[in-house]
């Protein structure tokens, strides 16, 4: 396995420009397209669809076909068999809450940019040894928030690592993360909560997305 980063610079730039990824769980594939359009209208053009429901792959496929302007990532990739499925459905990248060598290897083999989940220095060292340079820090708030993150990554700052951070992030604390250049984006489950997607409450989703995009604009002017 090489030391080359598996996220190309143009993909990092695209995700970093959005900076607030809508992390969503979709129970009805019919909700996928209106959800993507609602987010896109508010300048949230990157979303992560978790693989925790039977319709997740179909939801990705529908967004790929009907809302191609939306960049879709696959979340909660937990086994290597899911890698080819999310690629076929149009996923541009993958994220996981944990660190699986099999998933890292399969993603590298198939060409899927993949950020494994880490939360300790030992896990970071392992991911680095496996050639990963874009990491997912989860769950960040329960483990100590931005202070924990800055302390944990300090010994690795010379490596030029980039991070997604998620778990307990909301409008009141997201600015603390967006301030740091090595944080590519935050994951926001609050932008489009599962309950609002189930009821297709797009007005609430739009309100949340507007708030997230406004905070990003203030912190990272385009």
Descriptive account of the structure:
- The protein has 222 residues and is α/β, with parallel strands linked by helices.
- The protein has one domain (9-219): Alpha-Beta Barrel (TIM Barrel), CATH 3.20.20.
- It is built from eleven helices and nine strands.
- A nine-stranded parallel beta sheet has the order 5-4-3-2-1-9-8-7-6.
- The N and C termini lie far apart (36 Å).
- Residues 1-5 have low confidence and may be disordered.
- It comes from Rubripirellula reticaptiva.
- One of its GO terms (molecular function) is lyase activity.
- Keywords: Carbohydrate metabolism, Lyase.
Q: What are the main properties of this structure?
A:
222 residues; alpha/beta; TIM Barrel; nine-stranded parallel β-sheet; 11 helices; 16% strand; disordered N terminus; Aldlse_KDPG_KHG; lyase activity; Aldolase_TIM
Secondary structure elements and their pairing?
Layout: H1 9-18, E1 20-24, H2 32-41, E2 46-50, H3 56-66, E3 71-75, H4 81-88, E4 93-95, H5 101-110, E5 114-115, E6 117-118, H6 121-129, E7 134-137, H7 140-143, H8 145-153, E8 162-165, H9 174-178, E9 183-188, H10 194-198, H11 202-219
Parallel strand pairs: 1-2, 1-9, 2-3, 3-4, 4-5, 6-7, 7-8, 8-9
């Amino acid at each position: 396995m090489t030391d080359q980063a598996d996220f190309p610079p143009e993909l990092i730039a695209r995700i970093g420009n959005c900076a607030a990824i809508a992390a969503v769980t979709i129970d009805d594939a019919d909700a996928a397209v209106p959800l993507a359009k609602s987010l896109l209208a508010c300048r949230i053009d990157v979303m992560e669809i978790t693989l925790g429901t039977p319709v997740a792959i179909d939801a990705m496929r529908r967004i790929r076909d009907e809302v191609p302007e939306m960049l879709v990532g696959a979340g909660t990739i937990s086994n290597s068999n899911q890698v080819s499925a999310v690629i076929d459905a149009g996923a541009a990248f993958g994220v996981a809450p944990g660190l699986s060598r099999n998933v890292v290897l399969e993603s590298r083999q198939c060409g899927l940019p993949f950020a494994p989940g880490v939360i300790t220095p030992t896990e970071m060292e392992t991911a680095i040894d496996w050639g990963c340079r874009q990491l997912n820090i989860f769950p960040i708030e329960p483990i100590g928030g931005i202070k924990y993150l800055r302390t944990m990554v300090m010994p690795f700052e010379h490596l030029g690592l980039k991070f997604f951070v998620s778990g307990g992030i909301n409008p009141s604390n997201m600015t603390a993360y967006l301030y740091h250049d090595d944080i590519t984006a935050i994951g926001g489950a609050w932008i489009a909560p599962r309950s609002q997607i189930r009821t297709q409450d797009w007005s609430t989703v739009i309100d949340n997305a507007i708030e997230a995009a406004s905070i990003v604009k203030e912190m990272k002017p385009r």
